[in-house]
UniProtKB/TrEMBL annotation:
SMART domains: FBOX. SUPFAM superfamilies: F-box domain (SSF81383), RNI-like (SSF52047). Residues 3-49 form the F-box domain. This is Uncharacterized protein LOC117653669. It comes from Thrips palmi. It holds the Pfam family F-box-like. Gene3D superfamilies: 1.20.1280.50. InterPro entries: F-box-like_dom_sf, F-box_dom.
Length: 437
């Protein structure tokens, strides 16, 4: 009776019901009757399907018109290389593990076949075999020749750079996002940057050594909007880039290079800054220089501002310079700085992330600290996020834990003073209804 009622539904409604099934369930459902056999292979149901299980992938490549994502482990490469030979399935995202020279040869077959039917717009490669592997240039050539590829991620753990393959087929620029997680850039990276210079918008090369960051090539990308790389002296060459709006800078224990400071001081259109590592904006002079930069009134996100508490206190009188700031992340929260944060000094601020106090401090006690409560009450639109290791210790004896308030609190949640429903799913911990014991 239930089956008859289900099949009585119009095709559009039945497709909406089938959209809740997994790829494995769709393949099982299609054997029930002729109508479901056809509907379960409707393109709409497979455009969001992600498959990594070899058994499901075997059937999907034979029957499904398309797949959103296919993940192939190294142990399954040989089987999938055979399966794709007779497949017309269009795969949008492809993830491959290449751990040996034979894996590289099999991956080449998969990439060539799936890209030839109009797929592989997003490719992620985890390369574990040495750069000198004889089959690796052939795989890199197949990647370089993919027509219409938009995103490419290459994770390569070896220090020897990837070679530049010879590609006799003209490639139209199409790549918009390139992420290279490697300690060495080299010829293949330069070839990608040159080939897709007209379309690249997002380049992530955080592990490259300072001397290998190709700032000259990056400066020739007219549409470059986001860059993630090591803080280097040569970054000053990008200071006048017309479209660069988001920067992530990575560094170690070395001093923040003057070239990186020049970039931050002179860049005209920065909207987001993020610092990783010990180096970065961490002195009073750095803070003053950033506040006086051309992009200070335009910045919407400022992440990873470090320094000792006495240094961060110097940021308090500079806050009004960042009138567009929506997200701020600080290494510590000195009281003077917390008192300076207000709707008048930072009218656009919606999220404040802090990485203090110490690990052993109770989250209840921290949130009920007068400085934190005052901050939230004075900024009713603010969302407070603690992104450290702070939590509620087991058996904590603080007065707030004994009282039993907020038993569900966790580090990493958003906290606020505004009651009622919030689209950001925050937790109210301050306000008239949150009185102390």
């Amino acid at each position: 009776m239930d089956q008859v009622a289900l099949l009585a539904l119009p095709d559009e409604v039945l497709l909406a019901v089938l959209a809740h099934l997994s790829p494995r369930e769709l393949l099982g459902c299609r054997v029930q009757c002729r109508r479901l056999r056809d509907l379960c292979l409707h393109r709409r149901l497979w455009t969001a399907a992600c498959v990594s299980d070899l058994g499901v992938l075997r059937a999907a490549l034979s029957l499904a018109p398309c797949l959103r994502q296919v993940t192939v482990r190294a142990s399954d490469l040989e089987a999938v290389a055979c399966l794709v030979q007779g497949s017309a399935c269009v795969v949008t995202m492809l993830r491959l593990d290449v751990l040996s020279p034979s894996d590289a040869a099999l991956a080449t077959i998969i990439v060539n076949k799936l890209s030839s039917v109009g797929g592989v717009r997003n490719l992620c490669l985890n390369i574990g075999c040495p750069s000198a592997s004889p089959t690796l240039p052939t795989l890199l050539k197949a990647i370089l020749c993919i027509q219409g590829i938009e995103e490419l991620t290459v994770n390569h753990g070896h220090r020897v750079p990837l070679p530049a393959p010879w590609c006799e087929v003209p490639v139209r620029p199409s790549l918009t996002k390139l992420a290279l997680s490697s300690r060495a850039g080299g010829p293949f990276m330069h070839q990608l940057l040159s080939t897709h210079a007209a379309t690249l918008q997002d380049v992530s090369i955080p592990r490259l050594a300072e001397a290998e960051v190709p700032t000259a090539l990056l400066g020739e990308l007219p549409q470059l909007r986001r860059l993630a790389c090591r803080a280097t002296q040569s970054l000053s060459e990008l200071a006048d880039h017309p479209s660069l709006a988001q920067i992530q800078l990575f560094g170690g224990d070395v001093a923040f290079p003057d070239g990186a400071r020049a970039l931050l001081r002179r860049a005209p259109h920065l909207r987001a800054l993020e610092f990783h590592g010990a180096s970065g904006i961490s002195s009073a002079a750095d803070l003053r220089e950033l506040a006086g930069s051309r992009s200070a009134p335009l910045l919407e996100s400022l992440i990873g501002v470090g320094g000792a508490p006495e240094v961060l206190e110097q940021l308090a009188p500079l806050l009004p310079r960042f009138s567009s700031l929506q997200c701020l992340n600080l290494a510590s929260a000195p009281p003077n700085l917390l008192r300076a944060i207000s709707p008048e000094s930072l009218p656009s601020l919606s999220t404040l992330s802090l990485t203090c106090p110490d690990q052993g401090t109770c989250l209840h006690a921290w949130l009920h600290d007068p400085a934190i409560q005052d901050l939230l009450l004075r900024n009713p639109r603010l969302h407070l996020l603690h992104c450290g290791l702070l939590d509620v210790p087991q058996g904590c004896a603080c007065v707030w834990c004994r009282w039993g308030c907020h038993a569900r609190l966790r580090s990493g949640w958003l906290y606020s003073a505004h009651p009622g429903a919030c689209p950001r799913n925050c937790f109210q911990v301050a306000g008239p209804s949150r009185s102390s014991p």
